[in-house]
Amino acid sequence: MKAAQTPHKKEVPCVFGRPPQLPITKIIRLSAALLARHRRCSTPTAALSLPPRVCSLRPESLSCRLSTIYSWHFTGKTKLCSVDAAMATTKPRLSSFSRNLSAVSSSQTPGVKCGPNGTMFVSSGIADLDKILGGGFPLGSLVMVMEDAEAPHHMLLLRNFMSQGLVHGQPLLYASPSKDPRGFLGTLPSPASLKHDKSRDRESEQEKGLRIAWQYKKYMGENQPNFDSHRDNKQDYCNEFDFRKPLERHYFTRQRVNCVGIQHSKNLAALQEHCASFLAQHQRNDGSSALAGRIAIQSLCAPQCEHSNMDWEMLSFIKSLKGMVRSSNAVVVITFPPSLLSLSSTKRWQHMADTLLSVAAIPDEDKELAKLLSGYQDMVGLLNVHKVARLNTQVPLILEATTFSIKLQKRRFLVLECLNQAPVDGSSGSSYGTSGSCSGSSKAGTLDF
Amino acid sequence: MADTICRTLRDGGLEGEHAPALTIKDSKASPFGFDVFNYVLTQLSNYILAGKSQSRGLVVVAYSRSPSFYVDLLKRRGIDIASSHDWIHILDCYTDPLGWKNWLIDKDISQEASSLSSFCQDVRNLDKLYSLIIEQGKGLIGQGKDRFSIAIDSVSEMVRHASISSVAGILSNLRSHDQVSSIFWLLHSDLHEIKFTSVLEYLSSMVASVEPFNQAAFGQRVDLENLSMLEQNFRKGKFHVRFKRRNGRVRVMCEEILVELAGIKFTPVLSEDEIINQRLLPKVSIIVLS
Question: What family is this (chain B) (predicted)?
Fold first, then answer.
């Protein structure tokens, strides 16, 4: 629930309180009675905390009922503020059709951010991807990444995801078809040093004066990181990772990191058990600020695994995993190569995903593509966003663009950028057939504003 | 371009990286895959003998030809056989793959070939085959940190006796072994379902496919009109290679091949590049942001 401003008290951050185990109807009656009593007094006299389970699963229905009376303000302490005045100033989310998508203030758990509609996010480890997805990966969701057989870009996404979790101290379960899954931890990137951030800011400051606003939308987003980089809190929600610097060992020896090999197991029963016991430790029921967990499964249908030809087994594994993760404070990321599955299986797997991404290779030394897209030289691949998880809401997230280029800045830092058409050669007098007001003009000559 | 493949296999993999793997695939329409395989084998052998390659030895897993064939092939190409036992070993999965003729073994192979080869009499057990390959490879290079290369005559034969997942398992384990420098194999793509071909392409870092020179002429009746085009297909073909580069991009190249008695020749193609690149443009809709 969003923080509300009150005429008497300052705004306080919302947290999920400790749960009284009451049925919802009792809660509503109790709250109505409390408020009725509160209205008669001038000062707040009572407080109510709602179980997070109720808040997270049915915030709309509960909030609808309660906010027909008042809008609620949850605190961990036993104080309740009247929010009559707040109704006028703020826009409480009364129904599932609310479009207010701004993030609520951060939770107390490191690495976890509150989002709209009672969802909590963890970072994907890539700041650009978090922005695209509206905050990150929601806890309780299943993220699937479709691999390209010709490019290892899904490994970049996995590495960032795993490193981000380890930096925040979040427990990790990693499953891989390779012989030595634990060896993969040695390839995880380390957070970039602060020195790099500062030098980047200085560079961008210097460049501002000289920049020509070609495709200015590309630069508009850059104003925000400058603000974000001045934060003082020790742990950032999303770190910037340097692929040339391996993650320090103390991150994955100290934390609970479980690595599971899936090549030699006859079926997926062992992996399912590992996931079930991991997720059982991160149940959402108690509402305490427990650490979020992360599960990363690489190349689930890799051909060297014995279960790779058991289509229905793999599908039922994914279905049960999705059910388990829904009620937990964890995120599951699964990568798989769709070229190795039948078309119907691929469709079914795509439907199972809450968030669906795909990576694609790009041809090397392609003159046509270099002419068509700006920044082609720095691109290593493409990322497509097919589906974005929308938990607890019916409102879809409509993206401005669904295809992004994957670039490794200075071969170290992963960034995602929108695809932009390269400047049209004015002498040829023709655009490349794509629409857009900039490319519409085909004549060279004086600039016409 | 075929030389580029051979150089990539020669250079091997970096520390901690999987060994480069090449799939050579052909079909009935243009059955020159084996000639390409022999070409790559000969080139790699030359590099190993000259000491220019990362690998110090070569293990040939022979499914579809006998060890004598390879000995003769190397002799014809001018490679010194006398010292061959130092750097090449042939694992004979051709003579008796299922262990049927224990009592005929000695008569089948020439003396020269038998000194360079050893038998594998149970090709169904791929774990045992894996251990044999590693053992033979280590026997060639000794105890040090040197590496060896592997050539598999035909994975099409391999998959006749074992499941796809076990073939994929052995190939991926060989690629990820510390002492394997490079590996390449031959595949006849029309003998298998598309899934198996996709699996091998997924596992390899280079895919070289041999295609008919005149695609349109293949499969048609022999007529006076298309006779010359069909005849061209008997000796010529097209060679497409897709390299998966370390930076994640895919490099595509094309050459023409001409098969003669002396061997196979590769000639560059000048005008095909644009056509290839058009096919490879990513299927994305690009929205121009003004």
Answer: Belongs to the ELP5 family.
Q: Which residues of B touch A365 (CB under 8 A)?
A: 251
What order of strands is seen across the sheet that includes strand B88-92? B117-119, B88-92, B55-62, B147-152, B180-188, B21-26, B206-212, B236-244, B250-259, B264-268
Q: Which residues of B have a CB under 8 Å from any CB of A?
A: 163-165, 168-169, 171-173, 176, 195, 198-199, 201-203, 242-245, 247-252, 274, 277-278, 280-282, 284-290
Q: How many domains does chain B have?
A: 1
Q: How far is CA A35 from CA A51, A87, A412, A434, B186, in A?
A: 18, 15, 56, 59, 78
- Decide if B185 is inside a domain: yes
Per-residue DSSP letter, A134: T
3-state secondary structure of B65: coil
Strand partners, A403: A384
Predicted local confidence at residue A102, as pLDDT? 46
Amino acid at A392: N
Mean pLDDT of B173-194: 93
Does residue B115 lie within any of the structural domains? yes
- Asked if residue B286 belongs to a domain, the reply is no
Q: CATH no. for residue B142? A: 3.40.50.300
Of A150, A219, A424, which to mutate for an interface test with B (greatest number of B Cβ within 10 Å)?
A: A150
> How many angstroms from the chain centroid is the CA of residue A440?
36
pLDDT, one tens digit per residue, over A199-256 is 444 444 444 556 555 555 555 554 444 444 444 444 688 888 888 888 888 887 766 7
Tokens in use for A299?
Answer: 């190349």
In a domain? residue B223: yes
A303 contact B CB<8A: yes
Cβ B248–A304 below 8 Å, yes or no?
Answer: no
pLDDT for A294: 94
Q: From CA B108, how far away is CA B114, in angstroms rounded?
A: 9
Cβ–Cβ below 8 Å for B277 and A367? yes
The answer to whether the CB of B36 falls within 8 A of the CB of B256 is no
> What is the arithmetic mean of pLDDT over A67-91?
41
Closest by Cβ to A436, choosing from B173, B176, B290: B290
Structural domain including B83 reads 1-281
Domains recognised in chain A with CATH numbers: 115-193+236-418 (3.40.50.300)
Tell me the mean pLDDT in the region A48-60. Answer: 47
Nearest partner of A116 among A131, A132, A96, A130, judged by Cα:
A96
CA dist A70 and A81 (Å) reads: 11
Selected residues 151-210 of chain A with any CB under 8 Å from a CB in chain B? 151-153, 177-179
Contacts of B24 (CB under 8 A, 6+ apart): B33, B36, B37, B40, B184, B185, B186, B187, B208, B209, B210
Q: Which residues of B touch A302 (CB under 8 A)?
A: 168
Where do runs of H (alpha helix) occur along A74-185? 84-89, 127-132, 153-167
Residue A6's pLDDT band, with cuts at 50, 70 and 90, is: very low
Please tell me the distance from the alpha carbon of residue A128 to that of residue A130, in angstroms, as a whole number.
Answer: 5
